[in-house]
Amino acid sequence: MTRAEVYALINAERDQQAIKWGPPHAWGQGDCSSPDVDDRTKAAVLMEEAGEVARAILDGHDLRAELVQVAAVAVAWLEAIG
After folding, report:
1. CA distance 10 to 4
2. What pLDDT is stored for residue 45 in this prediction?
3. Residue 24 bridge partners (DSSP)
4. Three-state SS annotation for the chain
5. Which residues of the chain have pLDDT under 70?
6. Alpha-carbon distance 58 to 35, whole Å?
7. Residues in CB range of 79: below 8 A, 6 or more apart
8. pTM score, two decimals?
9. How far apart are CA 76 and CA 22, in angstroms?
10. How far apart are CA 15 and CA 8, in angstroms?
């Protein structure tokens, strides 16, 4: 897989996150790119995704998909920092 392909997967996941978390939800409104979501919540989301990577390794699930989600959450947080 090329770097461009990896970045395309991350961009697609970011689009999905924005759609899923854009409307108001239990933590507020917006995904991890939103300045309205505090850093504690962003850290919790990132750690939850990292835990899913570990779980994918243990259970033999789709590791690539979980890694893309971790990368997308990290990118979203970077977007919030500016």
Report:
1. 10
2. 95
3. 29
4. CCHHHHHHHHHHHHHHHHHHHCCEECCEECCCCCCCCCHHHHHHHHHHHHHHHHHHHHHCCCHHHHHHHHHHHHHHHHHHHC
5. none
6. 34
7. 33
8. 0.90
9. 12
10. 11
